[in-house]
Amino acid sequence: MIKVSNLTKKFASHISLDDVSIEFNKNEYIALMGPNGAGKTTLIRSILGYYHPNSGNVSINGMDPIKQRIEVLDKISFVPQLPPPIKLNLNELIQYIEASSNVDKELIMHYANEMKLDLKANLNKSFFKLSGGMKQKMLIAISLAKKSNIIIYDEPTANLDPVARDDFYRLLKQNEDEKILLFVTHRLDEVKEIVNRQIYMDLGKIVSDEIV
Ligand SMILES: Nc1ncnc2c1ncn2[C@@H]1O[C@H](COP(=O)(O)OP(=O)(O)OP(=O)(O)O)[C@@H](O)[C@H]1O
């Protein structure tokens, strides 16, 4: 369970999260929406322990994502809005993920194949030299192979072509059981069939929260 309690996060005098309280439970597939600058990514990053809040706190299965960062990140699959500038080639990246997060290499290969990413042809290529869509396919393949109970996606389809988007949503549907899936999106039409809860944020607050 993810529990956010009275969370306020300011950057200088700007309030990005304004006393936000919300819970996410297993079997919830959540679309987190709202205009640019509403605070969605700040909320996600706070859940992942990237930010020290000005007040309030976050708990993930009873753990503090700042104090127990490694244990918390081990429980979560996360695909960010902008892929990180990883210099490792894909082979090294897979080996690193396999060793650090105990993710099965064959499963990464399987999901990469399902996302139509030709992993074998690109194994010696640096991650940062892949196209934007290829990077997202790789991160999605890793996120699905990790088999986490908490999956957080921050606009993961931004660079994907329509075929890759369809592949991604098909794989997500296969993967739905007993999870929390938190999905930041501007395209409700794309995720409508997958989500069962829709949350809107604006000006650092939750302005609506509906079970659908
Ligand atoms: N690291 C930071 N330093 C300063 N201000 C920040 C930082 N991160 C976010 N902000 C500010 O916090 C506010 C919320 O930003 P956030 O990225 O959470 O919005 P968002 O809802 O994810 O927007 P988008 O839909 O554009 O991705 C914005 O005004 C942004 O400028």
TrEMBL record:
Domain ABC transporter: 2-211
Stored InterPro entries: AAA+_ATPase, ABC_transporter-like_ATP-bd, ABC_transporter-like_CS, ABC_Transporter_VariousFunc, P-loop_NTPase
Keyword annotations: ATP-binding, Nucleotide-binding, Transport
UniProt keyword Transport, yes or no: yes
CDD domains hit by this protein: ABC_DR_subfamily_A
A GO molecular function held by the record: ATP binding
Protein name: ABC transporter ATP-binding protein
Source species taxonomy: Bacteria, Pseudomonadati, Campylobacterota, Epsilonproteobacteria, Campylobacterales
